[in-house]
Fold this sequence. Notes:
Elements (H helix, E strand, L loop, with lengths): L3 E5 L3 H13 L4 E4 L2 H7 L6 E6 L7 H8 L8 E5 L4 H10 L3 E4 L4 H34 L2 H11 L4 H8 L3 H15 L4 H8 L2 E4 L2 E4 L5 H14 L2
Helix pairs in contact: 4-10, 6-8, 7-8
Amino acid sequence: MHGCVHVVDDELFVRESVQLLATSMNLPCETYESAEDFTERFRPGSPGCLVVDLFLTGRNGFSLLREYSDPRFLIPAIAISGSLDSRLSLRAIQEGAVTFLNKDCEQQELGRAISMCLRLANDAESVIGHERPLQAGLEQLSNSEKVVLDHLIQGMPNRAIAKALNVSERTLERRRASLLSKLNARSAAEAAHMVGLVSREEGVLRRRWPVPAELLAGVLSDDDQRHP
């Protein structure tokens, strides 16, 4: 397992603390005092882990998660904050974080999260070559085809999709055939399997890192308790 730990936090103490932990794990570490500093200096291509404060001075950590959550960047993210809050946890996950930790968490807990992220990044690196044709196909899709693909992934039948989009079934069939051709998929089921977990935001299809089931279950149960 290899990779660099990228720490984005406007507090020097936090940056130095995570850097010391990374050094103890024999991992290289880069620190950034702002989201703007990170976007200027970061160069994708190698596995890594992003540790990012949600409430940065200037551009916040949520926007950074949103921009770099796609696995092609190979930096699954750990969102950190000065307080644990189920709503913050859920929002961080929705924006693309793999996990959420309090800044005062034990070093061992942060170390486990970093190791988990690096395993994800290394696994992604090993298959990313196979995904490049898929990514190229996704980039060729028109906006209307992306909308159709989004509905197909949800398992909706053609008639229901046509009704939801207010188009004829013949028009839908043309868009469906076109997107399957661009993705080199033989069926809607195969396209959904190839694309995997995606989300549609502002017309853009984005891949997502898997979120640990126990974390998501905990966040949702906490939220249920807060809103009976």
